[in-house]
Specification:
Layout: E1 39-45, H1 50-56, H2 65-72, E2 73-76, H3 88-97, H4 101-104, E3 110-113, E4 118-121, H5 149-156, E5 162-166, H6 169-176, E6 182-187, E7 192-194, H7 205-212, E8 223-224, E9 257-258, H8 268-275, H9 279-295, E10 304-310, H10 312-320, H11 325-350, E11 354-359, H12 368-372, E12 379-381, H13 383-399, E13 409-413, E14 416-419, H14 429-444, E15 450-455, H15 456-461, H16 468-476, E16 485-489, E17 493-495, H17 507-510, E18 514-518, E19 525-527, H18 535-544
Length: 567
């Protein structure tokens, strides 16, 4: 059941080992295991809310990846983002840096830039493409303001190798930043795994092989059918008219479906449908394994890092809803992909010779129609556009028509209103602008589906006290990347026609899963102390005996602070 309520560093000597040593024998985790992992893996499941996981957990197989993490590792039962901007870019930046959005600066997937007068993409910066991979151009971490674990490891562990793999560019890029050997992502337009000269002067051989093997093309015609027993989907409806239709041209909302993109051969439409299916996670798992093989990650005693993000859960959740048969089946299939990936790590790196941390970049709310059918006040509409119209109306009523060529509200998007400062002139322009932000905020709250609205200066300058909404907004705002009025949707209300989404400060969007397993960690342990998904980089830094990233905020729970030799 969905819960609306909120859930209530040690710096060590640097490791100075060299490459080229023979691998030590694999050791099991627990007593007698090596205390420093050869490989640390930061793993993100895009859009995995705690409530979604809890509803699916009884249906995971005992040998699956999730149950292994629970059985053999640490479960953080109270993991939630501090920040309100519960989107992919901010979440992955937090996972990679340990910092909330106000510090790492990735405040949304995209945000309005007053400096350039338009919306900018979080990883949309100038970057030179590799000639063989032209589709990898103009993507990079230039807007990330905080150091990542990858950067910290490369500074403190001579000879370490770091890499990331995802379907989404922003996920791969923001988990490692600029200081990595490679960040690689799938380009849906071509089906290629790509990177650019931010990281590489030439295409890494393992990426060239992955693309030459046409891994995605090999999945053309795969049939997506429920993989679990009927009981795993009990209570879920497989034919809901508000879900998006599958992308193969059938117009159907049900399973099974053949993944073709509605075409006769692999191409852009097929790759798009593959992305929005559980087979997209198989692609990422195979790319991650190719990366480990190709870069020999974890092959010697110098610790390495791999960041991997499974993106397709997010597309499936958006298109069909987290309360759909498709979303449940995608999690059941991901459970098996994780099983395969952990088995691969056991074989290639050695059981007990790596550490694995899994979390999510954000949660998700249920489809409003599903919530409403269960008696919850839920709905949808063009909430942000209506808030802008209401604000413009009340500002005209107060100040008169805006000067020629201007309107008071110049932009709305990503739950923020931007006002036109040039529309306020004279000696009292600043005072009138401040008043305008208060009027716009008050007007927005009269829109059905808007819970609250605040002038941004109020959030930045006033103590939020015990108000969880104000606290999470404060953690989400960077002064140079914030609009003038912050909007908050009512719980279970959505902006627009997408079946389900996220991006709010509400618990279902902030509360996510978190598990840690491997070298130096206890087994079968549950920790209820509050943490954020940034705990992973802090935990890994301790296991590696290095300083955590400078902006990391989490402190390790007491159960993980005991000396590693005591385990």
């Amino acid at each position: 059941m969905i819960k609306l309520f909120s859930r209530p560093l040690v710096v060590a000597a640097l490791v100075a080992l060299t490459r080229g040593q023979d691998p030590a024998p694999a050791a099991a985790s627990g007593a007698g295991a090596a205390t420093t992992p050869r490989l640390v893996v930061l793993c993100s499941v895009d859009q995995l809310a705690s409530w979604v996981f809890e509803e699916a957990q009884p249906h995971f197989t005992t040998e699956g990846g999730f149950q292994r993490l629970v059985r053999d590792g640490v479960t953080f039962t109270n993991c939630a983002y501090e920040h309100a901007c519960t989107e992919t870019g901010p979440g992955h930046a937090t996972i990679g840096t340990g910092a909330p959005a106000r510090l790492h600066g990735i405040v949304r997937n995209s945000w309005y830039s007053a400096e350039v007068g338009k919306t900018v993409y979080c990883v949309g910066v100038a970057a030179e493409a590799l000639p063989e991979l032209p589709e990898g151009r103009n993507r990079g971490p230039g807007r990330l303001l905080a150091p990542t674990l990858s950067q910290t490891m490369r500074q403190q562990l001579a000879g370490c190798r770091t890499a990331s793999v995802s379907w989404k560019d922003r996920s791969a890029i923001l988990m490692v930043g600029a200081e990595a050997d490679v960040a690689a992502w799938i380009e849906t337009s071509t089906g290629h795994l790509v990177t650019n000269r931010t990281w590489c002067r030439e295409v890494p051989p393992w990426i060239a092989r992955f693309n030459a093997d046409r891994v995605l093309d090999g999945l053309f015609g795969s049939v997506w059918q429920p993989i679990g027993p009927e009981s795993a989907y009990a209570g879920l409806v497989d034919d809901r008219p508000y879900e998006q239709a599958h992308g193969n041209g059938t117009g159907a909302h049900t399973l099974p479906q053949k993944i073709t993109g509605g075409t006769d051969a692999a191409g852009k439409k097929f790759y798009a449908e593959l992305y929005a299916s559980p087979f997209g996670n198989e692609v990422v798992r195979r790319a991650a394994e190719a990366c480990i093989d190709g870069m020999q990650l974890g092959a010697d005693e110098v610790p390495d890092l791999l960041a991997v993000s499974f993106s397709s859960t997010d597309l499936v959740g958006h298109y069909f809803g987290p309360d759909s048969v498709e979303a449940r089946d995608t999690l059941l299939r991901l459970d098996r992909e994780l099983e395969r990936f952990l088995a691969f790590l056991d074989q290639k790196v050695g059981a007990g010779r790596y550490a694995f941390f899994l979390t999510a970049d954000h949660g998700v709310g249920p489809t409003p129609e599903w919530a409403k059918s269960r008696g919850i006040d839920a709905g949808r509409g063009l909430l942000q556009s209506q808030a802008r119209a209401a604000a413009e109306r009340d500002l005209v009523a107060r100040f008169g028509p805006a000067p020629a060529g201007h309107r008071y509200c110049t932009h709305v998007g990503e739950w923020a209103l931007v006002l036109d400062r040039a529309a306020f002139t004279g000696d009292d322009a600043e005072a009138r602008f401040a008043e305008a932000t208060r009027i716009a905020a008050a007007a927005a709250t009269h829109v059905a589906g808007i819970e609250a609205a605040y002038p941004t200066t109020e959030i930045l300058e006033q103590d939020p006290g015990d108000d969880p909404i104000r606290r999470s907004l404060r953690a989400a705002l960077h002064p140079e990347r914030a609009g003038d009025v912050q909007l908050v949707a009512k719980p279970y209300w959505l902006d627009g026609p997408t079946p389900a989404s996220h991006g709010t400060p509400h618990p279902y969007d902030r509360e996510v899963v978190a598990f840690a397993m491997g070298t130096g960690l206890p087994t079968g342990t549950r920790i209820s102390e509050p943490v954020t998904p940034g705990i992973g980089v802090v935990l890994f830094a301790r296991l590696l005996g290095i300083s955590p990233p400078a902006s990391a905020q989490d402190r390790l729970p007491a159960a993980l602070l005991q000396d590693k030799q005591d385990r």
